[in-house]
Amino acid sequence: MMKNSLILLLFLLFTQLLNAQSPLLKNWPDGQHPKDVGKALAYHFVDGRHELYAGRWIHYAEVCTWNGALEFARKTNDEQLVKLLIAKFEPFFSLEKALLPPKNHVDYNMFGSLALKLYSVTKDKRYLDMGLSYADTQWELPAQHKAEEKAWADKGYSWQTRLWIDDMYMITVVQTEAFKVTGDQKYIDRAAKEMVLYLDELQKPNGLFYHAPDVPFYWARGDGWMAVGMADLLTHLPQTHPDRPRILKGYRTMMKNLKAHQASSGMWNQLIDDPNCWAETSGSAMFTYGFIVGVQQGWLDAQEYGGAARKAWSALVPFIDERNNVTEVCIGTGKKNDKQYYYDRPRNAGDLHGQAPYLWCAVALL
């Protein structure tokens, strides 16, 4: 039995190695190399101003972009960029402390993921304490709470649970980062338990997700949060974790149907299943990231999905303008049961909702 298990493990490792070295995700033409694209976007972020919620707190889209820039700096051993990103954060301990998000919402608590990533780089305990406070309060029911929040907490879920698909990036990113820096199993267990709940409650038979249960539209960036959240969680979830098979099944089902809806251009549309809708960059980049990670980890067929990922990256890069702003990014979008509403959403150049997943793809392709 032990010998068979060892053979299986070696086979899986060999398969992952072959997938990770797939030529479909290497040898990029001029202008498309992930290192060049990532460097341009990362340094552009360093020079940018903070993006705030109503002028008050750091926005989650900035945190997502910061995380991407930091991972890029680490992957490329760019010490100058690391120092610049650390220096950009330092005022949060003093002059800009008021910009720290409160710890009472999934979009705010995910800020802790950035502090935890910085701790992994610097080993400065200030980052660890800050990051864990955001991760832990996501599961600590506040004194002033609603009955629904207590009901979720009593079942072992985050009191911030709301069954919006965005949450499966916002919750999992901070809990997974806490697991990575502490090794404490409770954090990855939290993320996995929450993910299974959202899959069971929200995933449709075709593998995709409505923007909300009462809004029957497959909005690209909304589904993108699920694609990235599952890919990142599976990367760090132990092979023997009891929730892994369910999450892997949900991930593969989603990837299969995303591939079926990829346009001939390589992009995905603002409404995934509507061929007449416009091509949207942030969701497309998130789906591309899901493909790349799946190929590299051996969860997806390297030839089939590696080709789709390459086609998507080649389509995404031309949407970056001369100022290193990603164009055709749908602005922040609340739910609405109106198809035309999604067609008419404004598109911003340089919106951090788009800059972030481009950086994630660049890092993954390196």
Write the layout of secondary structure elements.
Elements: H1 2-20, H2 34-46, E1 52-53, E2 57-58, H3 60-75, H4 79-89, H5 106-109, H6 112-122, H7 125-137, H8 147-154, H9 167-182, H10 185-202, H11 220-236, H12 244-260, H13 281-297, H14 302-316, E3 329-330, H15 339-343, E4 347-348, H16 352-365
Antiparallel strand pairs: 1-2, 3-4
Helix pairs in contact: 2-3, 2-16, 3-4, 3-6, 3-16, 6-7, 6-9, 7-9, 9-10, 9-11, 10-12, 11-12, 11-13, 13-14, 13-16
Give a structural overview.
It is a single chain. This protein is an all-alpha fold and 366 residues long. It has a single domain, classed as Glycosyltransferase, CATH 1.50.10. 58% of the residues lie in helices and 2% in strands. The protein contains 16 helices and four strands. The strands form two sheets. The protein has a two-stranded antiparallel sheet. A hairpin with a 3-residue loop joins strand 1 (52-53) and strand 2. Helix 3 (60-75) runs antiparallel to helix 4 (79-89) and helix 7 (125-137) packs across helix 9 (167-182). The mean pLDDT is 94. It comes from Sphingobacterium griseoflavum. It holds the Pfam family Glyco_hydro_88. Keywords: Hydrolase, Signal. Residues 1-20 form the signal peptide. This is Glycosyl hydrolase.
